[in-house]
Specification:
Blueprint lengths: L5 H6 L1 H6 L1 E5 L5 E2 L14 E5 L3 E10 L12 E8 L4 E6 L12 E11 L6 E9 L3
Antiparallel strand pairs: 1-2, 1-3, 4-5, 4-7, 5-6, 7-8
């Protein structure tokens, strides 16, 4: 996800941990990750907001093989999630049998460990999604 750098990871904490995004006041579209201008209309008339983390699985795939450092998580389900605020994000879907994931399934963001760097011991956390409990 990121090169193992504590300062860099700390600077990105709003995006990585809280799903910070932008909302364009001119065209009404949302975009993630946040930028200084709207990627749709180019306007700088934007608000920085935080997602509630609720959304719908639009597409998904199941990955049965991965790098050695991610083998504890196999199989890994990755989904294209459309959040209720209007933007999409690609993220792992956890706490679910891969055979029960389906398009249109409601999901919610959850903070989970992404990996542990063996050389530095740095534990990286990030947003994953799980089936909605509501």
């Amino acid at each position: 996800m990121f090169k193992d750098s504590v300062p860099k990871y700390w600077r990105l904490r709003d995006v990585v941990y809280r799903l910070k995004y932008i909302y364009c006041r001119d065209c009404g579209k949302s975009s993630f990750p946040p930028r200084s201008k709207c990627p749709y209309c180019g306007s700088s008339n934007i608000d920085h907001r935080y997602s509630k983390g609720n959304g719908v699985v639009e597409e998904y795939t199941v990955m049965y093989q991965s790098e050695a450092r991610y083998q504890d998580y196999q199989p890994i389900v990755f989904g294209v999630i459309r959040l209720d605020e209007g933007f999409r994000i690609v993220a792992p879907i956890v706490d679910v049998d891969p055979n029960s994931v389906e398009e249109g399934m409601r999901v919610e963001a959850t903070l989970r460990r992404v990996r542990v760097d063996g050389s530095t011991g740095l534990i990286q956390y990030g947003i994953k999604f799980r089936p909605s409990r509501r």
